[in-house]
Amino acid sequence: MSTVPSVAVALRNILRVDQVLTEAEELERYSHDDAEWAEYALPLAVVLAESNDDVSRVVKLAAKAGIHVIARGAGTGLSGGANATALSVILSLERMTAVTEINAAERYVVAQAGVLNNDLREAVAEEGLWYPPDPASHRISTIGGNAATNAGGLCCVKYGVTRDYVLGMTVVLADGEIVSLGHRTAKGVTGYDLAGLMVGSEGTLGIITELTLRLLPLAGREQRAVIGYFPSLQTAGDAVADVSRAGIIPSALELIDSMCLKAVDEWQGLGLPENADTLLLATVDETGDTGSALADRIAEIFAAAGSLDVRRGADGSGEGSEIDDLFLARRLAYPALERLGPVLTEDVCVPRGAVPEMLRRIQATAAEHDVVIANIAHAGDGNLHPLIIATEGDDDVKVRAKAAFDQIIRDCLDLGGTVSGEHGVGLLKLDGARDELGPRVLDLHRAIKAAVDPNGILNPGKAF
Amino acid sequence: MSTVPSVAVALRNILRVDQVLTEAEELERYSHDDAEWAEYALPLAVVLAESNDDVSRVVKLAAKAGIHVIARGAGTGLSGGANATALSVILSLERMTAVTEINAAERYVVAQAGVLNNDLREAVAEEGLWYPPDPASHRISTIGGNAATNAGGLCCVKYGVTRDYVLGMTVVLADGEIVSLGHRTAKGVTGYDLAGLMVGSEGTLGIITELTLRLLPLAGREQRAVIGYFPSLQTAGDAVADVSRAGIIPSALELIDSMCLKAVDEWQGLGLPENADTLLLATVDETGDTGSALADRIAEIFAAAGSLDVRRGADGSGEGSEIDDLFLARRLAYPALERLGPVLTEDVCVPRGAVPEMLRRIQATAAEHDVVIANIAHAGDGNLHPLIIATEGDDDVKVRAKAAFDQIIRDCLDLGGTVSGEHGVGLLKLDGARDELGPRVLDLHRAIKAAVDPNGILNPGKAF
């Protein structure tokens, strides 16, 4: 087993010594993302890249040595997409945090892959600009990881996902060459949309080191919130379907159940309400009378669908309000539940009209397999995140949890959905992806992967 | 040369006789799109496909015979992307005009590739839905062609291009297999974005036979127009850059010069104004006070940039108004100029801030090469369409026009632009695309093309 030291030595020859980690504890820490249940091995080494050239040199070395390169942002992924293989180098981009250019007139930002989503949002906000994609992890996840997984978030229901904001990128290919894909102009159709292909490819086709992201003006929106307190998951699901049928596009429409609220409250002590089974948190961001009328209509729909109570948030309601706390609870739900035990995170997307039925089936699945399933959802997109919690921690509950996980995927496909709405396939959804895509489309994936990464060194075994 | 009849005979064996055209006049008519100056040969036959199975059978036959298959919608392309090669079958999708499903609750439409853009818009409007992409050709171009070229249009400045509305598609691959790509849910990240890769690939990776397109609600917008009459291209260009710098996103921001206006007026007799060198046509579609305030700001910017006159259109101004006539003139500019002689259509996209400089260079190019260049532009996107007109029709003017065409491409790249904003590369922009993409990214294109279409039968020689 002379590979381990020789790879580390070779890496230290092309980088600074402190950029190459090999201690057992470090290898363990970088060996997997937040999908605890997905398989992983310890990598041969961890590299902390600081430039495009660093990434290029590492990939060239790995290509020569036949070693896998697995790019990693902050490791907040929920599908095992950044998990290490036994013959891999984990290439962390966390040190590539430069915001290179903010262009207010052209409304784009150029930033390195390791910039945290929220840091990017704050940097562009100072120039009066807005980067919409807002995964719940936005304070801890990187824009490179967001792009590699085509991350969604709360505002996608109106503003779209990461891919909708990627104009161009710098990518290190499987042979270590550094290329630019895409463009910085508002439009462009020169050649294939290879930048778009890289987005969501989970580091299997190239390593995104820098992104040019489209921005919107920060001004011109007014936030109004409508909170519905529902007696059951299904009545909340009905309200979601009704909002869609009414032709309303809210700027967020989130669902959170009492189990999530309780877990957050026990952790953070926010004093969250206990008088409902399920909450819907809706926002609209149109200005003036338009926004006001839209919020009224959502409130009416919530009431008609059976909401026990409907509350309205004032324009630009300050921090610390009940509504802000509820949105904070939504964002904290996942880490709060993780405190209770290993969480197997689902991420399925069904047609909006199928949300009530899907929620019904999730409850049935929880009962059938005797597991605890909490629910958060980007309900307005039909994107549900049943969180299967292994409170006991024994092997049996894990087996039952996995069975529930698989049942939810089958139900999602049965209802015309897709097995991953925004977390990516990684390792956890490989079977589901195969079922959804079918053999010929899988062949197409393999052919493209082989064309772009002929030796299969970039994050092999993930994404499809 | 027994190939010709044998191919036609073989095609007639797998289709109805009337679906296979071989008359010289028919071959000529289907042999090229609207890019008259791009090369083309007569195809071996023209097939009028009526189903996915028809397309599949034709591709299988062509694959076996080693014949090229060139898919074609309405033939309104402006880059030669649908032009025939000598060993090709032109596969027209014009008979595939079914709108299969309009789903108001999920806001999508499923339609065959041969549906005209405008027919689709009208069909979904009856259900209270809106399909935004609106190329100037929307009355005569198909959604399949729009997708194959990732067509833009007037509303892209606010609402994005065709790719932004493609959720999924049915594609016939190079081996004749029929596959589904993408999804019908609001979000989905399962596998690579192969639907997105097909969009804009100009029929070189697969033949799109059916599309699932995302829709928006039709209601909730109010149209307001602001027309600026400018003394020069540059002052109009300045106004465009100023609108962008002010953080305003209009729902359209079109530029049209006096030559275009005059050509349309002589053709259609609309009584268009003659008191300006260049017009900017802006619309905003926000409702109420918000829309009104936005239109005010645009009017102020136009005036400050040197507009001789600024006129405002009332909400929902009826047909036949001056403003409607001006937008009609914008849409008719291309066919109107074609009446004056062969038109070499440019389609470059530069940063919005570079619009004034690019317009200045275009004028200099016209003078230098002694050609007539009229200008229309989706100015708000920086997407310019200089129309080089060979009024004399002799070979010398064509040579000068081509030199001007190349100069404009060089200037566009020099200003940080892309050689095709929305028409596609086809044949006319191959050199420019090669310059823009660079050798390594071109290799990537070739590798993907070879992986997906190993025998190179799908529209070879186009797009990159």
Which characteristics define this entry?
Uridine Diphospho-n-acetylenolpyruvylglucosamine Reductase, domain 3; 8-stranded antiparallel sheet; 464 residues; Alpha-Beta Plaits; 4 domains; Uridine Diphospho-n-acetylenolpyruvylglucosamine Reductase, domain 2; 19 strands; 5-stranded antiparallel sheet; globular; homodimer; alpha+beta
Structure description:
- The structure is a homodimer.
- Chain A has about 475 residues and is an alpha+beta fold.
- Chain A has 4 domains: about 5-90, 2-Layer Sandwich (Uridine Diphospho-n-acetylenolpyruvylglucosamine Reductase, domain 2); about 100-215, Uridine Diphospho-n-acetylenolpyruvylglucosamine Reductase, domain 3; about 220-330, Alpha-Beta Plaits, CATH 3.30.70; about 340-450, Alpha-Beta Plaits, CATH 3.30.70.
- Chain A is about 35% helix and about 20% strand.
- Chain A contains 14 helices and 19 strands.
- Chain A has helices at about 5-15, 25-30, 50-65, 115-125, 145-150, 155-160, 195-200, 235-245, 260-270, 290-305, 320-340, 355-370, 395-415, 430-450; strands spanning about 20, 45-50, 70, 90, 100-105, 110, 130, 165-170, 180, 205-215, 215, 225-230, 250-255, 280-285, 310-315, 345, 350, 370-380, 385-390.
- In chain A, strands 12, 13, 14, 15, 16, 17, 18 and 19 form an 8-stranded antiparallel beta sheet that branches. Chain A has a 5-stranded antiparallel beta sheet with strand order 5-6-10-8-9.
- In chain A, helix 8 packs antiparallel against helix 12 (about 355-370).
- The longest helix of chain A has 23 residues, at about 430-450.
- In chain A, about 60% of the residues are buried.
- The interface between A and B is large, with 90 and 90 residues.
